[in-house]
From TrEMBL:
Protein's UniProt keywords contain Membrane: yes
Protein name from the UniProt record: Cytochrome b561 and DOMON domain-containing protein
Annotated organism of origin: Panicum miliaceum
Lineage: Eukaryota, Viridiplantae, Streptophyta, Embryophyta, Tracheophyta
Compositionally biased region (Basic and acidic residues): 238-250
PANTHER family, per the entry: CYTOCHROME B561 AND DOMON DOMAIN-CONTAINING PROTEIN, OS01G0895200 PROTEIN
Ranges of Acidic residues composition bias in the record: 228-237
Length: 441
């Protein structure tokens, strides 16, 4: 009887499956199964039809499709709502990262001055799509419910839906769309508040689309990206982008132009090209900053130090002082001109510009004072020295302070402020040491 029991136990042990081989097999099988995210991404492609059903308030079949922004997986579909109609339908799709997505139409190819449609879906599933006028590079300079796009209203008003892991921003506009387009994606997990103002974009890109013969054309990918500074990188820090080249003979899509000798592009050859975004190192905004630092922040203070501590080396100190001050003022004026070309007049930026103008005026007064310098023997020379020294010191102080102010407005990485701060600190220490040496000797 004991043998039968031991045999039964031995048989049961042999027939019980071991967990480790089963787990290994399960892992191997599951590794070949597509994840929901990857399958959803594969489903939303130009090779597959768009199936949103009643989620979008207009017909989305027959729209041209192209990968608008590969690095962010933006897909743009667009086309005329009906043959002979002046109503155009657009659907922009992108991954849902918890931020907003937007597409804008620009008269210049830059983000500033564009009219855009932006949309987002909250964690509770509520979607919001609104038009924005991109008047500058900050949130308050891009007011909601403003812009130049003739968007459809009522039941066909702009809408955004979330399906799977992607957002679909759909809208219709009347009239001929502009062919320069800009794209932006908001920071993950950061949505507009009750005032509707958009947080500064996380990334942006620019490109063009082509319209031909009353139907929509496809396109090639737009490029862009970086730190999102902006437009004025040639653009928001954005905006950063250069001027796009358009294919020769690109057509406006006006059927009345047929037979007038224009070279037309077919839908298959339509292009969408982009320029690099805010990540370009010497964007327009950064060129302005570099010029300001070199001119007002380095050369002009160096000229002051040459005149202060090297008068024993006569006449070297005078010519070195004039050369440093003159070159610094020229570079500084170029920085101010570059700053005014950024097309942003919002409150803090306007104050930054005003301080820059005051510094330029101070530099001009110094140049005029040089031309009206009295002789050393005259009594007026004492008052001239007082004027020349104090106006110069005020201009230098304002210039350095405005550089730090501009760095804070530009939302640059803190390393930029740290580097210039270290330079100013070293310069101040050297200045104090030389001042003590001058006092003793």
């Amino acid at each position: 009887m004991a043998r039968i029991t031991r045999a039964a136990r031995h048989l049961t042990h042999q027939c019980t499956p071991r967990p480790l081989p089963a787990l290994v097999a399960l892992c191997l099988v599951s590794s070949y199964l597509p994840s929901p995210v990857s399958s959803q991404s594969a489903a939303d492609s130009c090779s597959n039809g768009l199936s949103l059903g009643s989620l979008v308030p207009f017909n989305t079949t027959g729209l041209a499709c192209f990968q608008a922004w590969p690095s962010q997986d933006f897909i743009l579909r667009f086309g005329k709502a009906a043959l002979g109609s002046n109503l155009w339908s657009f659907v922009l799709s992108a991954p849902d990262n918890g931020g907003y997505i937007s597409v804008g139409f620009s008269p210049t190819g830059r983000m500033v001055g564009s009219s855009a449609v932006a949309g987002w879906v909250t964690a509770a599933g509520a979607g919001s799509a609104r038009q924005y006028y991109l008047g500058g590079t900050s949130s308050r300079s891009c007011p909601p419910d403003q812009g130049k796009l003739a968007l459809a209203r009522g039941a066909a008003a702009p809408t955004i839906v979330s399906k799977g892991s992607r957002l679909y921003l759909a809208f219709q506009l009347a009239g001929q769309p502009l062919t320069d387009v800009v794209y932006a994606v908001g920071p993950s997990g950061s949505l507009p508040g009750s005032n509707g103002l958009l947080p500064q974009h996380q990334d942006m890109a620019s490109g063009t689309i082509s319209l031909s013969g009353g139907s929509s054309g496809g396109g090639s990918p737009a490029t862009g990206g970086g730190d999102g500074d902006g437009d004025d990188d040639g653009e928001e820090g954005g905006e950063g982008k250069g001027k796009k080249s358009k294919r020769a003979g690109e057509d406006s899509g006006d059927d009345d132009d047929e037979g007038k000798g224009e070279r037309r592009t077919s839908p298959a050859s339509a292009s969408s090209s982009g320029a690099s975004g805010g990540g370009a190192f010497l964007s327009a905004k950064r060129r302005h900053g570099v010029l300001a630092v070199v001119g007002w922040g380095v050369l002009v203070p160096a000229g002051v130090a040459l005149a202060r501590f090297f008068k024993r080396l006569d006449p070297f100190w005078f010519y070195a002082h004039v050369a440093a001050q003159g070159l610094g003022s020229v570079v500084g004026v170029l920085a101010v001109v570059a700053g005014f070309r950024l097309d942003d007049d919002e409150g803090p930026v306007a104050a930054h510009k005003a301080i820059g103008v005051v510094v330029v005026v101070g530099a001009a007064l110094q140049a005029m004072a040089l031309l009206a310098r009295p002789a050393k023997e005259t009594k007026a020379r004492r008052y001239w020295n007082w004027y020349h020294h104090n106006v110069g010191r005020a201009a230098v102080a304002l210039g350095v302070a405005n550089i730090f102010y501009g760095l804070s407005l530009a939302s640059e990485r803190q390393e930029w402020s740290y580097v210039y701060g270290v330079f100013v600190g070293i310069f101040a220490v050297v200045f104090l040491v030389l001042e003590e040496w001058r006092r003793r000797h």
